[in-house]
Amino acid sequence: LFVMAIAHACPHPPSSGTDWRHKRRLDDSLSDMLRGRRCETLFRDLMFDPDIVCSCSFETTRRLNMNSFLSWSVHLFTASGAVFGTFALIAIASNQLAVAVLLMLTTLFIDGLDGTLARAVRVAEHTPQINGRRLDDIVDYLNFVVVPVFFMWGAESVVHSMWLAAPVLASAYGFSREDAKTEDNFFLGFPSYWNILAIYLWLLGVAPDVGTIWVIVLSIGVFIPMKYLYPSKVEPMRLRVALAVGAILWTAALAACAQWPDEVAPYFLLEVSLLYPAWYMWLSVTRGGFKRRTS
After folding, report:
1. What is the phi/psi pair of residue 80, to 5°?
2. Distance of alpha carbon 107 from alpha carbon 136, whole angstroms
3. In which band, very low, low, confident or very high, does the pLDDT at 11 lie, cut at 50, 70 and 90?
């Protein structure tokens, strides 16, 4: 309160003779205080020129407000995935599967980008009252499990709806695992890419019995300790960029196949798009493989 009172009482900008080294120290002290951290040097730093205090408090408040705004914006971006997922459920219920595919691809785009934005903005530091990982898991379970399972029901991709309980239960286990993401930045077990499976089963016109087999096999895959690539954290950076560019092209290809299936059929765009998930699986096997037990 003392610091804020000084800040609001300053009617003029700092003088030209401001000691910027002291300003820097005080600026850091104010940042620590406003983030709720302990700072024994704060009141000692306040003994400097009042102009420094005014300048620092204004600058620090502005910077922290911007960081807080950016952090809340990233959380809103993550949460918007749940909105698109809800619209996808409505589209499926209305038998507008092509629209649902576009919405599901939108949620994939959001999920692929929000983690990178969160790390860049440092949301855990600037909005500690929000658990970004929990928010991401809630949205992901909706968009990677509930929505695609409902899509497979609407597209009649399985022989009986009871088989759809398998991915719901398996992914509930997968999402709740403490080691769902390994220390070397891999997903452990099949990472619940049910949305990708649902889209391809529909676009390829796979028979319900074959679709049921895929659902059963991948549900079992959730429990198998194989390490799958974490695209936004893969190293080296050039591979991460290549995966990101490939993901954009792959998403555009699937969107075109969903919206204009007859027009793109002569170009075998749907079949060509399978190269991207095949590449992802190859990278997962060669770079991840099976997790070895440690004694």
Report:
1. -60, -25
2. 12
3. very low
